[in-house]
């Protein structure tokens, strides 16, 4: 099993190897850029999918194109994943807003914890939220960022993040509670 530069077999990122990839990509080394994009692709997909839903693959692709075009703007290689996260969230929200869809879901029964249908039902409820609400929930509860970090990623005031989180949680609870009725 081949090891991708910047990542160990256990999935841990090697900062020195990532810094070398970033430096090479910034110099125009196509192999370094290709390897860097290979390392970033799963990370970008995990961010874009929950926010952009059906457009997650497109958002991921747009993110990787933006990284390819703007890699020279990255001043500190250690900030790579934070920089990419900002781009990914913005692209995912942009594409989701273009479609601005609301998917009504009829859930007749709530599954028991551990039931394979639970993840699908959660996804159905999330689809009913706005892209901005999905983004704050994903960054806060999946990525584990604090509210200040979410504000920086989304480039909005802290108060906006707090109000979006409040509304997103309330909307999720309301949709989830009404899902089984």
From TrEMBL:
Organism: Streptomyces fildesensis
Keywords noted in UniProt: DNA-binding, Sigma factor, Transcription, Transcription regulation
Entry protein name: RNA polymerase sigma factor
InterPro entries: RNA_pol_sigma-70-like, RNA_pol_sigma-70_dom, RNA_pol_sigma70_r4_t2, RNA_pol_sigma_r2, RNA_pol_sigma_r3/r4-like, WH-like_DNA-bd_sf
Domain RNA polymerase sigma factor 70 region 4 type: 120-170
Transmembrane segments: none
Similarity annotation: Belongs to the sigma-70 factor family. ECF subfamily.
Pfam family, one: Sigma70_r4_2
């Amino acid at each position: 099993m081949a090891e991708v530069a910047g990542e160990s077999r256990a999935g841990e990122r090697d900062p020195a190897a990532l810094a070398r990839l970033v430096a090479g990509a910034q110099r125009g080394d196509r192999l370094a850029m290709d390897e860097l994009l290979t390392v970033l692709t799963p990370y970008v997909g995990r961010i874009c999918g929950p926010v952009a839903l059906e457009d997650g693959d497109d958002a991921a692709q747009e993110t990787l194109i933006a990284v390819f075009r703007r890699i020279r703007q990255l001043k500190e290689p250690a900030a790579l994943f934070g920089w990419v996260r900002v781009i990914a969230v913005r692209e995912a929200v942009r594409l989701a807003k273009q479609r601005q869809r609301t998917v009504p879901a009829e859930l007749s029964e709530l599954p028991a914890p551990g039931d394979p249908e639970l993840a699908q039902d959660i996804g159905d409820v999330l689809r009913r939220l706005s892209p901005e609400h999905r983004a704050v929930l994903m960054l806060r509860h999946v990525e584990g960022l604090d509210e200040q970090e979410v504000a920086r990623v989304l480039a909005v005031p802290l108060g906006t993040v707090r109000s979006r989180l409040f509304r997103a949680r309330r909307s999720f609870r309301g949709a989830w509670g009404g899902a089984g009725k």
